[in-house]
Amino acid sequence: MPEKRLTVQEQPPAVAALSEAELLGRIFPRLSLKGNHTQATLLGPGDDAAVVAAPDGKTVISIDTQVQDQDFRLEWPNGYRTTGFDVGWKAAAQNLSDINAMGAAATSMVVSLTLTPETPVEWVEDLADGLTAGIRDLGAARCSVAGGDLGKGREISVTVAVLGTLDGNHAVLRSGAQSGDVLALAGTVGHAAAGLALLESTVAIGALRPEQRVFLDLQCRPRPPLAAGPAARGAGATAMLDISDGLLRDGLRLATASGVTMDLDAAQLRALADVLRPASELLGTDPMSWVLGGGEDHGLLATFPPHVQLPAGFTAIGSIQALGSNESPSVTTAGRSADTGGWDHFAH
Amino acid sequence: MPEKRLTVQEQPPAVAALSEAELLGRIFPRLSLKGNHTQATLLGPGDDAAVVAAPDGKTVISIDTQVQDQDFRLEWPNGYRTTGFDVGWKAAAQNLSDINAMGAAATSMVVSLTLTPETPVEWVEDLADGLTAGIRDLGAARCSVAGGDLGKGREISVTVAVLGTLDGNHAVLRSGAQSGDVLALAGTVGHAAAGLALLESTVAIGALRPEQRVFLDLQCRPRPPLAAGPAARGAGATAMLDISDGLLRDGLRLATASGVTMDLDAAQLRALADVLRPASELLGTDPMSWVLGGGEDHGLLATFPPHVQLPAGFTAIGSIQALGSNESPSVTTAGRSADTGGWDHFAH
After folding, report:
1. Which fold has domain B15-165?
2. Dihedral of alpha carbons B122, B123, B129, B132, sign
3. Which of A51, A288, A83, A336 is nearest to B104 (CA)?
4. Shortest CA gap A172–chain B (Å)
5. Chain B residues touching residue A102 (CB < 8 angstroms)
6. Full-model pTM
7. Contact across the interface for A98 and B61, Cβ inside 8 Å
8. ipTM
9. Does the CB of B117 have a partner CB in chain A at under 8 Å?
10. What is the pLDDT of residues A98-134, one digit of tens each?
11. Engineering a disulfide at B294: which of A170, A245, B49, B290 sits with its beta carbon 3.0 to 4.6 angstroms away?
């Protein structure tokens, strides 16, 4: 038998080579979440719609989209190639975080994938793996993928709608913060922004030390603190949201919804910035800009009455104050106006 | 005071000129559905997630995306320009149809919009109007828009996730058809395909007679028969789906899920094709290809036990037969193999 000789480099098969049914056949087996024993999905993929349990008669729902070259680049200036696993994980993380921020637990996801014809099938399989790994490893133990939709486009786009349950409890809104409340943070802030800066730098991935690489990894695969949302609700949090667009920007949303001033503790901010030094010193960046303006870590910002013992994972980083007459809701640092920043899809 | 003189044609403002908050401020007021008095949304836009009532402890959920140049063109060969209203209406219709096909009633939608920077703000406002008009005019009287997400991309993409309620009843699946069942259709089939052919023709819109224009309008703003789904469930339908990809293709899905043969009545098919003659004679097309292969009318295909009186809006168009030994599930016409067709996102 002659040796197999390749005269041209073999290309991995792209989605254009498969029918919709064939591609779904490659994806579905990877969406199994057998370890999640208390799944709420009553009817999964295969019909026109799925059916999900909502035992307390209410469903929490959110939706979030990632678009190629807007929310991720397939290849970054520093050479990193975004894997399907990254995009799937991030889709899970972002959406699970929105449910977490209400004090709820995720029960189900439906996924709409828009793929370019040249997307490698492997990349899509990897995305399915990342989605299930995100759900599993972040601890959304009652969640599974209930269904989805598949289509073609000129750019990759991944939309997830996520359902959750409050288990009979109330939702924690943005609007309940009161004067005198403690402001507390769960999870990290600025790490994903440091990672984004590393991805957009010319420092090669191989040159990163582990304590720098960790920020890049968190940008690609965020780790929202999923136990913290229901814990905050249980401890009596008066208001909560997740920090997806930056501490100042999301803080202002909470302050505005509640009609209060949010004052950040300068020492706590410095401590949060210090953690980012391995990246900021490499890039010559002020780490405080990442702390105040960086989104995508999906930490939780919550307010608690002053007498409450903060639940595990939360650190006090400021306080809530009443608005003076003629004052607008704002975010201040040690009483001084803080420069607003963060991500705006259209203005930036 | 000098007269205001315009030396260049004024462009309508595009979304790039607005911040995310400003654009949301233009959209939200248009999502009000005050006429829908029994809305299930308990907490609407403004927090990290919405909360929707699910009184019987179950939520039906589906998701669907429309992408520019795949699912619609901003300008068609015949000169028609797709309005934001069309895209919003179609997003509502497609998603409401998926809930209808389960025998359920829609309770809520969340919407993720990806917009190009040059999209006119008016077009987006129009989309919001079309979405609410679709929900209202198609009769989804308990549904409202509970929230959404906004982002930027190189092409317009609209994803809707829709929730529904079964009101304590079971869902009608694709898998329940039995030998001897009557096959019935509610709504139209082939009309949207005739409309698509008109849009892709060079026959100017102004040259269309009203009985031709109606197909174009149905392609742009489908009218799924929303009362028919719950009625079919109530009447004892054994299986159901909506025809989004064509009668043969969706019929085969039902036949496959149920493990049966679906036989279509030739006289009924001819009657369905005859209705399309105003368009088929203009374009010189065989109208049967639209009846068998055309999707997007979002009619319902359902099976009923033979003794059942079909609910209002359903017409018998065939029957269900047991598989012979060594037979695979199939769709036949008067016992003869029917050519499969219809829409495949990747194969076509």
Report:
1. 60s Ribosomal Protein L30; Chain: A; (3.30.1330)
2. negative
3. A51
4. 9
5. 47-49, 51
6. 0.92
7. no
8. 0.92
9. yes
10. 999 999 999 999 999 999 999 999 999 999 999 999 9
11. B290
